[in-house]
Amino acid sequence: MNILVIDGQGGKMGRLIIENILSKYPDAEITAVGTNSLATSQMMKANPAHCATGENAVIVGCRRNDVIMGPIGIAISDSLYGEITPAMALAVGSSDARKILIPISKCNNYVAGVEDKTAAQLIKAAIDAI
């Protein structure tokens, strides 16, 4: 299974996602794409199979993977304080990959009906959805 993990800002959530995937599915091939070099650097610490940075890496990754994971903002243009470009959001949204989005209510995005849970609890639920 090929899984694309996209994260921005500091990359902490992406790192936690990768660590949790690899602990449950050690044979998963994970590509980590950061919207900036700091996020990519943080995710690299979790030892994904591949790493890349930036808009084009997101676009290409969305075409080549079976599953896309990350905070819900990766599918919303201008989210993560402007790090998600319209092209990135379009690539995520139009990909044929299964999207497992973590409902983080930040950056002017509020997900109604979502229970107030910690990032760790949300990530565990996302990993279980794989």
Characterization of this structure:
Strand 2 (29-34), helix 2 (37-44) and strand 3 (50-53) form a beta-alpha-beta unit. The chain starts with a strand and ends with a helix. The mean pLDDT is 92. The chain is built from 6 helices and 5 strands, in the order E-H-E-H-E-H-E-H-H-E-H. It is of the alpha/beta class and 130 residues long. A 5-stranded parallel β-sheet has the order 3-2-1-4-5, with helices on both faces. The chain has helices at 12-24, 37-44, 55-64, 79-82, 86-94, 119-128; strands at residues 2-7, 29-34, 50-53, 67-71, 98-102.
Summarize this structure as a short list of keywords or feature phrases.
130 residues; alpha/beta; five-stranded parallel beta sheet; 6 helices; globular
Offer a concise description of the structure.
By secondary structure, this protein is of the alpha/beta class.
Spans of at least 5 consecutive residues with low confidence = none
Average predicted confidence as pLDDT = 92
Major sheet attributes: 5 strands, parallel
Spatially, the strands of the biggest sheet line up as: 3-2-1-4-5
Task: Please give the count of helices.
Answer: 6
Question: Layout of helices and strands, plus pairs?
Answer:
Blueprint: E1 2-7, H1 12-24, E2 29-34, H2 37-44, E3 50-53, H3 55-64, E4 67-71, H4 79-82, H5 86-94, E5 98-102, H6 119-128
Parallel strand pairs: 1-2, 1-4, 2-3, 4-5
